Amino acid sequence: MRLFDDTRQKISFFGQLFNLEKTASVIEDGNLPYPLPDNKGGGGGMHIELKNVCFTYPGAKSPKKALSNVTFTIQPGALVVIVGANGSGKTSFLKLLTRLYNPDSGTILIDGEDIRKYSMADLRQTMATLTQDHRLFPLSISENIGLGFSDKVDDEEMIRDAAAKGGAVQLIEKLDEKMKTILEPRSLQYGNHVSAGDGTLLGKELHALRKSRDVSGGERQRLVASRTFMRFNSGKIKLVAIDEPSSALDPEGELELFNNFLAAKQVNGCTMICVTHRFGHLTKHADQIICLKDGEVVEMGNHSELVALGGEYLKMYHIQARAFESDS
Predict the structure, then answer these.
(1) What DSSP line would sit under 183-216, residue for residue?
(2) Whole-angstrom Cα distance, residue 129 to residue 210?
(3) Domain locations in the chain as residue ranges
(4) Which superkingdom does the taxonomy of this entry point to (predicted)?
(5) How far apart are CA 141 and CA 153, in angstroms?
(6) CATH among 3.30.70.420, 3.40.50.300, 3.30.70.260, 3.40.50.11710 for 48-175+213-326
(7) What element of type H or E holds 275?
(8) Tens digits of per-residue pLDDT, 10-32?
(9) Do residues 124 and 94 touch, judged by C-beta distance below 8 A?
(10) What residues in the chain have per-residue pLDDT under 50?
């Protein structure tokens, strides 16, 4: 009976996936290839410009805009940090940039062209994103990392290098199966007569599941970060977008991760956007800091310029500095 129930659940699960695949996207795709043949944006990074962008989530109960008349420009190859409290619009900006949504009004230009003109597949191939929404799959650690660049999913050396940059080596080395360890399997219920070593198909699967492993929040973030570093190997990345990736990492792990991203950025010449509500060493090294509040841009500049303004950025900076001192 348990096996029947589980099979029924799996059929339902795959039915949902099929229905999702058949659902038409409400975001109209463009047909302009990206990057443009003449590389209008210049350099290796993506040029991004927002002009009076407004956005409200579809079906939102509140009439309050997630973004309201947002205007700014990000130069190719720049390191940009977007700061603000929760609900300030930081993540909403990235969702528009990756074309999960369209703005209600205003324009987003990528390398001088309206973002809606571009092929979404082409555009997304040039982006490496790291968010808290990224998930691990019921595959081996090697496969989970390799999916960052599926053309090289079997390249062990490339995957090991990505794991090192993502800070996942220590986790991997302490596992018996190392890179072959299966992560987060969908649990199966077997009858008592099925043995893990009986040679049957179900027995083999049960044996594989026993070698599997769940991971902690910090370990998950390191593995997902490793997948993002794997993506750099495609040679197509023009934008790195990082959204609160270090919430489950200790300060040392956070510093190491960001330093590795900065090194990758320098090698590839790509534009890098970091979205955060926490202040760290990145803000002091940023070419540009965009401070959002209630969906609006309230301040822009580098760290020294915004501190000198004595406004919202400095207020948030002091709050976090006091919190750090009280914890130490």
Answers:
(1) BSPPP----TT--TTS-SHHHHHHHHHHT-B---
(2) 32
(3) 48-175+213-326
(4) Eukaryota
(5) 11
(6) 3.40.50.300
(7) strand 271-276
(8) 455 555 556 555 555 578 899 99
(9) no
(10) 1-6, 10, 41-42, 185-196, 209-212
Tokens describing residue 313: 């950025």
Alpha helices in the chain (DSSP H): 2-22, 90-97, 120-125, 141-146, 156-165, 169-173, 201-210, 217-231, 251-268, 281-285, 303-309, 312-327
- One-letter amino acid at 28 equals E
Sign of CA dihedral 34, 35, 40, 45: positive
Phi and psi at 49, nearest 5°, equal -140, 125
Tokens of 213: 């492993």
Measure the CA–CA gap between 47 and 10, rounded to whole angstroms. Answer: 44
Quote the tokens at residue 137. 């799959």
pTM for the model stands at: 0.79
